[in-house]
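The passage that follows is intended for readers who have already worked through the single-chain material. We present the inputs for a multi-component assembly, then the predicted structure in tokenized form, and finally a short commentary. You are encouraged to pause after the input and sketch how you expect the pieces to fit together before reading on.
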Amino acid sequence: MTPTDRARRAETRVAWLFVAPLVVILLAVAIWPLGRTVFFAFTDAYLDNPSSYEFVGFANFVTVWEDATFWRAVRNTLVFTVVSVGIETMLGLAIALLLHRAFFGRGLVRAAILIPWAMPMVVSTRIWDWMLNDQFGLINKVLVELGIIAKGIAWTADPSLLLGVVIFIDVWVTTPFMVLLILAGLQLIPEELYEAAEVSGVPHWKRFWSITLPLVAPAIGVAMLFRTLDALRMFDLSYVLAANNANTMTMSIYARDQLIGFQDLGVGSAASTWVFLIIGLIAIVIVGLLRLDRPHH
Amino acid sequence: MAMRHSNATYRLIRRLKSVGLYMAVAVVMVYVLFPYYWAIVTSTRSAQEIYSFSLLPSLNLTNYVQLFSNAVFIGALVNSIVVALASTMIALAIGILAAYGFGRLHFAAGRYLLIAVLMISVFPQVVVLSGMFEVIGWLRLYNSPGALVVSYLILTLPFTTWILTSFIRDLPVELEEAALIDGCSRLRILTHVLLPLMWPAIASTGLLAFILSWNEFLFALTFILTDENRTVPVAIGLLTGSSRYEVPYGLLMAASVTVTLPLLVLVLIFQRKIVAGLTTGAVKG
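Having made your guess, compare it with the prediction:
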């Protein structure tokens, strides 16, 4: 063994020592629980006594697959994700372009925009729930005063409006995150590009389409990926606003409901495993799309 | 080609544009800030005035007095503080060690491990719920704040490790080489040479971990059974009146304002650090 080999081996050993606590903890709180969830999905265990169970094959997976409520939850989650991430991206881009310009008090404005993002989701939900209250909410009061509606709308009680309200609140909460990531992308665009375009008389709208948008696209792509994965596992907003109401129930709420509500460890775990597979598949597709989109240099 | 304008028209157009800019910024600010302001206003209303639509607060502090004389709420506040601080500290300590291993030391498995860590950070929480129940049962932590300190590590550790690793990679290697030649151990290099330089990154990851733990809802709802062990978000989430029409909104808003206040202070003071942490996490991720 040469001295460099020995040094390299020593370095590998030391490296493992440094990452050992991380590996041990993630095995305990992530990998092991994930494995056990998949394991329980094949059993008929109940939560009050998980140690007594029998293997039931794929029965739990079939139970979930044949449950109309599950598909309702999948549909709700997908609608919620696509619509809210779509609106957040548009609105986020618009606000980022606005805040990218020089104006007095820009630092303060950028700090203030973090506030909805930093607030607990539970708090945001309850504040909007109060503002959207059918009788005493401020929103209805303003709309009636302005003559837009004749009498208050039951925003949070009318089943057909509920998912829209959930999306509305989520847009308020997470647009700041989009704004920040897109702003970071905008700051990377060299100012000279715009100066050159201005000198050559390229009009404003064309500068946006051929300079800003293509150069900020990677930042938008990453932000959308993060937001999509986050939206697909959404739990607290729907839960606090409407508990397990069928109109806003997400995949996460469905799985937790089976597990905790019905104490059914087997079916709950199977539902969780389905959620994992669905989100995993979507993640792979999006990452693939982002790769394809990237220009080759 | 741009049209030619007289100086006066040109000035007018510029002034109009700048008025438009400030008006647009004002609209964004109202959208972003008004809900929290309205929560403050409502929290200062007594039960009788709660349905008044005046935009000014009433300076009536009954709700806050009631809130802070409620032992359960104080307990929840203490639980939230303990849980968020403990899980942040643990995530930082372990994250710093791991970041040094990934960022500075060469080992073949490192790359794959780091990708695995990244993948764990996008796990839906509900997927580990069944298994986590069991782990918490074994540790005898069910229905205790300790259950949250342990389970929050799955949320805080991956991104802490990721951001700190990319920060260490950006530091010049020359710093440690001298120390290494002098025969310093790796751990000593980390604590004495790198750590003093890492404070900006530690502050921003620590803040993100704190905010995440402070706001967490699903685990806190599931692993805590009794009121005295709950954290504030769950206490607020579960607070209802005897019916849908008797929700104590004044009290609820007072609690909401209170639990958000520490975050507001942190965000306003450390705005730059938080943004830096968020963008490294996302852009390099």
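Commentary: Chain A is about 75% helix and 0% strand. The mean pLDDT of chain A is 91. How closely did your sketch match?
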